[in-house]
Amino acid sequence: MFAAVALVSLVAGCATVRPPTVAPPPVAASAVPSLPATYRQVAFSALPGWNDDRLQDVWPAFQVGCRALMKPASATRAIFENACADANALDPRDAAAIRAFFETHFSPYEVAAAGGSTVGMVTGYYEPLLAGGRAPTARFVVPLYSAPDDLLTVDLTVLYPELKDKRLRGRVDGRKVVPYWTRAEIEGGKAPVADKVLFYVEDPVEAFFLEIQGSGRVTLADGSVVRVGYADQNGHPYRSIGRVLVDRGEITLDRASMQGIREWGRQHPAELPALLDENPSYVFFREVPPPIPGSLEAKIDGPFGTLGVPLLAGRAIAVDTRSIPLGAPVYLATTYPLSTRPLERLTMAQDTGGAIRGAVRADFFWGFGDDAAREAGRMKQDGRMWLLWPKGAGPPSS
């Protein structure tokens, strides 16, 4: 659904949730999410590195995002309609025209938390590759499950609006709805998932990290590669196993990363299942069909995020939709992992994550492969965010 993943946030797996409800302009207080945040309009010249950003690089992500935002059922259609319509006339190779487009159609708003802080945390995530098969073998024994039939989604928001941002999952036990099985209980055979195996993979740690990332690829014995994406979750909160290991004194804080946890698992195979069970959360997957050849989705070639569009490496972020509307352009100013080198660019808020909570909070999508995994695994940087909001839609509010 991932940071310099130091303990607390080895995590931010991108789990799919529904987009926020956004009303047509003029923007009412309910149009933008309800997390306490403030938005201060600034000039584009106030965005660090704005003039140096290659805005044409984000253009495919903006275009594919418009397709989702312009669907008839989209609650954000009226807000972005003019901008998305005008985008169709632009040449994607015309850097000057794309820059003029953003500066003409949007106004930047600096995002601040309720207490006034404009600095938050930026972590990273990636799309992993696992080896596996559709049937178990001596090598591939770790199952990836699709959602079980007895997993219920409990929606009480009509009666209890304060539960709007809670993912309530359960199962029926007699005449009661009770919490769904925990990770330990699912692994122990209590959940009816025996016929729900999508694939078998080799390494339980890699399967665990796949849950955290929320999507990935599986390469099969015949050389073909299939994608899996988030389908559902058992409703239990995520608990960082990095934090568990640090609290036990098993590893030091500087080793509480994906790489450090992998190494611990290799050294303690007998203790690994119990460690993974310390996290009661469990993610179920679905097989994602390949995009149509030659389509914009195929050119982007990324996993699908919460908005329902493929994520462009280096230009997509996961956000807390209570402060950043899903699908909106967001200018991000942070630094590369473990450095002071500026990472300043326009991104698209096209994903969410279970650990992405806060007004100034982003999870940066690094892409696919070993390099992306390395950067994502050690990213936990300070960052600032500016929401690009369509002109004429009224100022954002929370």
Characterize the structure shown.
- The protein is of the alpha+beta class and 398 residues long.
- The protein has two domains: 7-125 and 289-390, RlpA-like domain (Barwin-like endoglucanases, Beta Barrel), CATH 2.40.40; 129-241 and 270-287, Ribosomal Protein L25, Chain P (Beta Barrel).
- The chain is 21% helix and 27% strand.
- The chain contains ten helices and 17 strands.
- The strands form three sheets. The chain has a six-stranded mixed beta barrel with strand order 3-16-13-15-14-17.
- The protein starts with 36 loop residues before the first strand and ends in an 8-residue tail after the last strand.
- Mean pLDDT is 88; it is low at 1-34.
Task: Write a short abstract of this structure.
With 398 residues, the chain is of the alpha+beta class. The chain has ten helices and 17 strands.
Strand and helix layout:
Elements: E1 37-41, H1 59-69, H2 77-87, H3 95-105, E2 106-113, E3 120-127, E4 129-133, E5 142-145, E6 152-153, E7 169-173, E8 176-179, H4 183-187, E9 197-201, H5 204-213, E10 215-219, E11 225-233, H6 241-248, H7 258-267, H8 272-277, E12 283-288, H9 296-300, E13 316-319, E14 329-335, E15 342-351, E16 361-368, H10 370-377, E17 380-390
Helix pairs in contact: 1-2
